[in-house]
Design a protein that fits this description.
Main location: membrane
Helix content: 55-70%
Radius of gyration: 24 Å
Shape: flat
Keywords: Cholesterol biosynthesis, Cholesterol metabolism, Lipid biosynthesis, Lipid metabolism, Membrane, NADP, Oxidoreductase, Steroid biosynthesis, Steroid metabolism, Sterol biosynthesis, Sterol metabolism, Transmembrane, Transmembrane helix
Number of helices: 9
Family: Belongs to the ERG4/ERG24 family.
Largest sheet: 2 strands, antiparallel
InterPro entries: ERG24_DHCR-like
Distance between the termini: 76 Å
Structural class: mainly alpha
Number of domains: 2
GO molecular function, one term: 7-dehydrocholesterol reductase activity
């Protein structure tokens, strides 16, 4: 099939030629590649992994996955142990090296695991059981429209209300969250890698919709994910749960806990 040539356009003394390749040609080449369903792979740039920048992409992904935990611990140590002084924190790590990292690393504790586990379970119950209007999300590249339950605001208000009641009835002291925040970060770091691994396996073995695909690179699939909207059921969206139920709700809880700690526990 012939390409459609556009008349060259001069820009700064140079002629620029643009070639329009018909969409049909790209579709036919995808079918000849023998993929299970070409549409599943539309959101992945397969050729990018065969280009000269493959090494750069791999190094970038590895750097983010390996360095992120160290950056989190560095920021925690700077704020909690080094009085907010980046210079003081850097001087400590440069002076003691690997030993300095090992000495200050906040390992997971039983208290931190219980707090994180209770919060995750509570938010999961709210997302799954709290009623709300059923709304359709935007259309995906494949043409699917995921279904959501609009109960975010009630979840947020109930979360804050229950947290306040626990504090008011002296069943829980929010200031403790600040005291063991390093251990909580460590628990979340471990949980992140475990959850990502489970989602990677799920994407391979049990994708929930046609919005899935593989880049042909194990590290790329692990880093980017294989499903656009991973779900455990028709209404329990994992992405919504991670970003909004745990992320946004947890953000508010942390702010309140730190404020109470700063005010002396009240």
């Amino acid at each position: 099939m012939k390409s459609v040539m556009i008349k060259p356009v001069k820009a700064r003394g140079r002629a620029l030629e643009r070639t329009l390749e018909p969409r049909r040609k790209r579709t036919q080449s995808s079918k000849r590649s023998g993929s299970r369903n070409p549409k599943h792979h539309d959101r992945f740039d397969q050729s990018s992994y065969l280009s000269s920048s493959k090494a750069v992409k791999i190094v970038s992904m590895l750097a983010m996955m390996i360095c992120s935990p160290f950056f989190i611990v560095f920021m925690w140590y700077t704020m909690v142990r080094a009085d907010g002084s980046v210079e003081k924190a850097c001087r400590h790590f440069f002076q003691f090296g690997i030993r300095g990292i090992k000495d200050v690393w906040p390992f997971p504790s039983q208290r931190a695991c219980k707090l994180v586990g209770a919060f995750v379970l509570f938010e999961a119950i709210l997302q799954a059981l709290l009623p709300g209007e059923r709304v359709m999300g935007p259309s995906t590249p494949v043409g699917n429209r995921p279904l959501y339950t609009r109960n975010g605001i009630p979840c947020f208000l109930i979360t804050l209300g229950v947290y306040y009641l626990l504090w008011r009835e002296r069943l829980f002291n929010p200031a403790m969250v600040y005291d063991i925040i390093g251990e909580i970060y460590s628990v979340l770091i471990c949980a992140t890698y475990i959850t990502t691994t489970l989602l990677y396996v799920k994407g391979h073995m049990a994708p929930c919709s046609s919005d899935w695909g593989s880049s042909g690179n194990v590290l790329g699939d692990f880093f980017w994910g294989m499903e656009l909207c991973p779900r455990l059921s028709s209404v329990f969206d994992i992405k919504v749960f991670m970003n909004y139920r745990l992320g946004i709700m947890g953000w508010a809880i942390l702010v309140i806990s730190f404020a109470i700690k700063q005010l002396g526990g009240l």
